[in-house]
Amino acid sequence: MSDELLKPLLRRDPIVGRWVISGRVDKNWTPEELKKFVEKHEKTGKNCPFCPGNEKMTPPEIMADRPQGGHPDTPGWRVRVVPNKYPALKIEGDLDKRGIGLYDMSNGIGAHEVIIETPDHFSEFADMSVDQIQKVIVAYKTRCLDLKKDPRFKYLLIFKNYGKVAGASLEHPHSQLIALPIVPKRVREELKGAHRYFDYRDRCIFCDIIQQELYDRIRIVADNANFLAIAPFVSRFPFEIWILPYNHSSDFSEIEGDEIADLAQILKESLYRLKMALDDPPYNFIIHSAPVGDSNSEYYHWHIEIMPKIIKVAGFEWGSGFYINPTPPELATEYLKAVEYK
Amino acid sequence: MSDELLKPLLRRDPIVGRWVISGRVDKNWTPEELKKFVEKHEKTGKNCPFCPGNEKMTPPEIMADRPQGGHPDTPGWRVRVVPNKYPALKIEGDLDKRGIGLYDMSNGIGAHEVIIETPDHFSEFADMSVDQIQKVIVAYKTRCLDLKKDPRFKYLLIFKNYGKVAGASLEHPHSQLIALPIVPKRVREELKGAHRYFDYRDRCIFCDIIQQELYDRIRIVADNANFLAIAPFVSRFPFEIWILPYNHSSDFSEIEGDEIADLAQILKESLYRLKMALDDPPYNFIIHSAPVGDSNSEYYHWHIEIMPKIIKVAGFEWGSGFYINPTPPELATEYLKAVEYK
């Protein structure tokens, strides 16, 4: 590894132009330093609305994987999707953009769903079977394809908050899907950055990042036939991981066949390595995909960003969009690779 | 107050175009709901490098307010500025931007200073005398004027992290100043948004916001002869507060005379109202000012943004730049105004 990359550096994200301070002047942070910040989250498993037998505690289910059949909202499911009981947006109504003096506003319409990933309260992606994770991915895809039919929705955001620090309010394994009536700002910025690169080079920047990483080979965390997991060159957070499909595709919901199994495998491996390297840290992951109606774009490439939430994001980051990451991604990769996996 | 604003709404920030979901479908969150999330931070006052008598525990001081004179790095100061012992950036070297394959990088040069706000370990802005806060503001200004002389620095960022959740690693009252060799992305976006408005209307958008708020009178938290404190129409966080000077000025470091005393007063009042309304929540504040060399701009207006850190920022916000704020700013204002002050 180039020693230069372990020195404190400003690194600039080629996609959105974000700058990150990578490494520390005094000492890069290793897992030992970082583990001091990991807050424990003991699971109690009590009164859980997502556990089998408590199906009536959630709103009526939208879909479920029931290998033996059976009635909705009863046990026997392996993955279950329900509306969020306390949604951020409501499903009825129209987007009626209007002004109020200087300001702009609209009704808060959208869908907010919860994907219950397993009946087992104490399981997690890092420990689940690849087969079970596949079922979760199929549920993500199925819900996307359904919500895309609603012309009011412009963006589908799938994400997971793991651990209280990362914002999870319920401990039973679950992810969330929010359908939005607008394309959010940070997504538009990412698209714009990728578009600018495509205009200049006539190539997809994510495809180029994959090539660069396969050439450098110092930030690869895991790989298989269809996917590459890397510690991105401009990691904002210690031990950040991105998962990219080798095949160019802008739309996550077009995933199929072997890709589904391979995504399940690499997601499990990445989260397992993270769990072992850092003592089960809280994290968020987000599926970055093209807006609805903008699929088949040549310049955008769907991917997953996993962000461990170990150190607090402080005033500095909020005020500037300028991050401080005390662990260079090349160092994080070494620790992640050192974890024994299978 | 217009009832419409208490309903769940999408609100669009007129400056940077950020969308925020304001309010909840089920129930807006009041201080009672929010207080459940406030993590306590008991101060111990032990082994504090910022306490009088421990001056040798910090790097040599850069400046200090010593009314009786006396030697540097000894007691007798009222405000003291020292280099950060573990800086994010180092002061020596040049910004040597260069490429590495697809990526861009540079040396991490810059200044990282700590402003120790008072000798009293257990004091805070909410409880300090206005006179003491004035001395802190004068220290901010003095350091800005000095650092501006270094041609390598393009942006000066002053911020405070209060409480562990907000990222404070030491409990003794302090703020930080980081001098950056580039203008960070989020600052550039804010400038661009303000510039676009100016191009269209030939007016400063912040001056217009002040007029709008003085007309609406439902989001004013505090005011005095020179400053207005509001709960912004597009609050990203519950109980967010912005402090704006009435006089148009793009550069914080040009503050002088009565403005310094009035800023101290409104900062104290705002933080006191926040502390009382929410049971001493953690917060960050950031001074938003024009880049070095870009002062006297007609379109930008310096201001302070105070962001209480009560609810966790989860995967959704990170992935989208789309925030969910369960407490509409009009409701937050009611609670902040209900606090008895003086």
Quick structural summary:
With 342 residues, chain A is of the alpha+beta class.
Q: Shape of chain A from CA axes?
A: globular
The percent range for helix content of chain A is 25-40%
Which chain pair has the greatest contact?
Answer: A-B, 76 and 76 residues
Average pLDDT, all residues of chain A? 90
Topology order of chain A in helix (H) and strand (E) letters: EEHEEEEEHEEHHEEEHEEHEH
Task: Describe this structure as you would to a colleague.
The structure is a homodimer of 342-residue chains. Chain A is of the alpha+beta class. The first copy, chain A, folds into two domains: 3-41 and 185-338, HIT-like (HIT family, subunit A); 55-180, HIT-like (HIT family, subunit A, 2-Layer Sandwich), CATH 3.30.428. The first copy, chain A, contains seven helices and 15 strands. In chain A, strands 3-4-7-9-8-13-14-12-11-10 form a ten-stranded antiparallel β-sheet, sandwiched between helices. A three-stranded mixed β-sheet of chain A has the order 1-2-15. In chain A, strands 5-6 form a two-stranded antiparallel ribbon. The longest helix of chain A has 21 residues, at 258-278. The relative contact order of chain A is 0.17. The mean pLDDT of chain A is 90.
